[in-house]
Fold:
Amino acid sequence: MKLTGSAALVTGGASGLGRATAAALLHAGAHVVVADLPSSPGSVTEELAGAGPRVRFVPCDVTDPDTVQASVDAASELGPLRVAVSCAGVATPGRMLSRSGPLNLDAFARVVQVNLVGTFNVFRLAAQRIAESEPVDGERGVLVATSSVAAYDGQIGQAAYAASKGGVAALTLPAARELAQHLIRVVSIAPGLFDTPFMAGLPQEARDSLAQQVPHPARLGDPAEFAALVRHIAENPMLTRSHPPRRCHPDGTPLRNETGGRRCRDGFAVASRTDRAGNGLGKFSGRSGVVAVVSRAGRQPLRIGALGPRPGGIRDRPTPSRS
Ligand SMILES: NC(=O)c1ccc[n+]([C@@H]2O[C@H](COP(=O)([O-])OP(=O)(O)OC[C@H]3O[C@@H](n4cnc5c(N)ncnc54)[C@H](O)[C@@H]3O)[C@@H](O)[C@H]2O)c1
Structure:
């Protein structure tokens, strides 16, 4: 999809991954609304001010339908809304059962509310607006969510965060299947560890230790690297989560970047789409960001999903058992 002249909405765009994403989309020629909490660093607009009227900051709480709607409206004033990237998120660690007792239920609910409900709130309102636009080159737009490697490999103290990010990963597929009829793609990214203010709370020693546990490259990810992936997702119409193999991959992974993670073995892992015969092209896997396509058919998965005639019309086709 051509970004030049299109409008993009980036929530959590005042910091970290969202900020880098806003800059990358601006660089690609899009008009960008940075939607973030009123208390977020206002310096983002100064930093991006070189783009002139192509960028706007809109105070927004992703859990609040009114301010998200205002952000969508503001983006539409800049151009046809084609891209919505959900980067707003909170981590708030806490053990389920600590010395002081069970985790406060409100603390758990708040993380889920911001990360999961907030993502859905942005998706539903942005989708409505994108669906009203004229298709260009066979598509109307794309929604990008930020999950986390914690969705698959949560650590102690991450029950709320992992649950929220698992929810983001899980909603991606039904959203992509549903919105395909509107020519809207939906993709989630599950980043490993990136060097953002999110990580700033950790002592340098801990950050260095985490970085050293990454096989290659042994460092935290640069937000610009995440942003480059978002830009690629927006520009590459073949990237969507709507045509995955069914039940042939244990985690049904969305775009998953574990290069910055400490428990990773793969670089990127993607469950993407089916080939022309309807066989699932299961997992893009590879070390250190080298992306390769592995046909699950070639690997003889237990079952392979084949696409039905319409979006959402999935039927299962048994394949030979794994020997
Ligand atoms: N940094 C990492 O290593 C990492 C890894 C995996 C996933 N993520 C995810 O990436 C996303 C961005 O993280 P980051 O590292 O850039 O963090 P960050 O703290 O730098 O940025 C998060 C932004 O979200 C905003 N925000 C928080 N609550 C909000 C709300 N209710 N409404 C609107 N905006 C809100 C904050 O103001 C902030 O600007 C988060 O969803 C996070 O869970 C980060």
Summary: Residues 105-131 form the longest helix (27 residues). The two ends are 42 Å apart (CA to CA). The chain has nine helices and 14 strands. The chain has a mean pLDDT of 78.
